[in-house]
Amino acid sequence: MDTSLKRIIAYLIDILIVSIVVTPFINLKAINPYIDDYNKYYEEYTKLIEDANNGEIDTNSDEYKNQVIDLNYKIAEYKVINSSISVVSLIVYFVIIQYFLKGQTIGKKILKLRVVSNKDKELNIGHYFVRSLILNNIIFSIILIVGVYLFGKTGYYNLSMVVSYLQLLVMSVIILMVVLRRDNRGLHDIIAGTKVISTEAINNEEEVKEIPSKKEEKETIEVEVKDEKKPTKNSNNKTKAKTTSNKKKSTRKNSGN
User: Fold this and answer.
1) Is 216 exposed, middle or buried (0-12, 13-18, 19+ CB in 10 A)?
2) Average pLDDT over the chain, rounded to whole?
3) Residue 115 forms beta bridges with which residues?
């Protein structure tokens, strides 16, 4: 399977896992006391949009525009805790857990992928944080949370529209870069100085390095044989000494005769 496709599938698995874990906490009144208010205004907003799409409301009227702006702000106001829990969960999963798992999440483990440095350096937790800010839209979520308290209804509505377009743009750029680039690096990888590689490829390379080729084995055997046949310095000295001794004995014998 292509690495880019593996990355997309791994990301979807990770987002699904985070959603399954976080959703129960968001719906607990003990943790999120504004959940009922959020659901109430969200339902009103949904019904308003449906009526507008069905032609029951004049979308050009000031009344409709004011209702949209008002409900949009109320939803955001009562969604602050939801958004904060989501941001914290994404940071814990994609930053802290991935850091301690040495560049892997559950999705990446399943698809046998790993985040590594693009410059063959050891990654620190800051690299994962920068990746997550962009990849998981954390930076945009933080902007919207802060914007609720900094802007009024109209100002926040305009801010939310701009952020929505930017989110779509950034995610589109990331997907295109991952799919089209030869190294499969997305915008978040470029900024954080990271890349995603296949652990299968690493294991195969290590296995190839560990297994010597037939040529290398043959050369090793030839060297060992040569080393065995090659006389050492000590053996040469012993041979010379033995020859000299034999000559002396022969000379003494002849002189005696």
Assistant:
1) exposed
2) 84
3) 196
Cβ-based neighbour number of residue 222 at 10 Å: 10
Cα 198 to Cα 108, 177, 202: the distances in Å are 9, 18, 7
Backbone angles phi, psi at 114, to 5 degrees: -150, 140
| Number of domains within the chain | 2
Structural domain for 97, as ranges:
3-208
Query: Residue 2 — very low, low, confident or very high, per pLDDT cuts 50/70/90?
Result: confident
One domain, residues 142 and 252: no
Same domain, 164 and 64: yes
Question: Tokens 């954080």 — which residue?
Answer: 192
pLDDT at 250 over 50: no
pLDDT at residue 229, as a whole number = 54
Same domain, 40 and 128: yes
Give the tokens for residue 247. Answer: 């000559």
Angle at the Cα of 247 from the Cα atoms of 241 and 249, rounded to 5 degrees: 105
Please determine, for residue 165, whether its predicted confidence score (pLDDT) is greater than 50: yes
DSSP letter string, 92-105: IIIIIIHHHTTS--
Mean pLDDT of 208-218: 49
